[in-house]
Every structure is written in C-alpha cells, then in structure tokens.
Amino acid sequence: MTGTPRLPEGYDISTDASRLDVPRVHRWLSTDAYWALGRSRAKQDAAIAGSLNFGVYEAVTGEQVAYARVVTDRATFAWLCDVYVDPSVRGKGVGTALVAAVREELRPCGLRRILLATHDAHGVYAKLGFRPLERPDHYMALAFD
Hints:
By secondary structure, this protein is an alpha+beta fold. Helix content is 26%, strand content 22%. A five-stranded mixed beta sheet has the order 1-2-3-4-5, with helices on both faces.
C-alpha cells in the first residue's frame, strides 16, 4: 500500500448528505448493483439517513459520479457498503480514491476494523489495505429472508 490515492483533477468528494443526488444513487444501486437490485427508494432513503455518506462530484458541473455509504458507530466498527462508480468514469481512479477517502475519514476514530463484502472487486480493496478475514469462522450472519 503506497500513499493515499487522490481523486483525478476535476472531481471533489464530500460527506455532505445534502449534496447527494438521491434519485441517481437509487437508480444506480437498484438497477445496476448486484447487491441492491430492486431496492426500494424508501429503503434507500432510510439507508442514507442512517449512514455516513460519501459522494464524488464533477467539480465544474456538480454532477455526482460516485457514491459510498458507511454504517458505523465511529468508535469500534464500520461496514463499508454501496460503493458505486458511474460507468462513464470507471477506470479513472475515482473508486479507489473514494474508498481511500472513506479510510482516511474513519482513521481518526480508532476503529478496530472496517468490513466490506465484494463479489468481484477484491483487487481494488486490497490496494487500500483490505484483506480477507483472518478468522472467517468467527463471523456469523442472521438473514431475514
């Protein structure tokens, strides 16, 4: 892991939830993200309200181009989820810089760990210090099907 990846020039990042383009975030996740397909707008609104949200925006137009959400108590634990980068800016380093910004925002909190789940982006997260669980047998999940 070398340095903190920076956003490409022409983009900025914010944790100000009032800047989020919530309809766009909902459309991205509910129609194009395998983990959130079909998620209702009401469910997405509730998730946003209960989370620390990150948006990446084009600096000139203010158009949102990426999103990430963190469920955290800001003391002991965080769950990074709903990381999404618009297809038009993928491959430019926006996603890597977004996750690095999440890491740096949470670093001063003294968390023991930040967890995430991914089906296909292990390499992206590994570049930022994430690694497989050392003891996956210690973790369990309760699913409400």
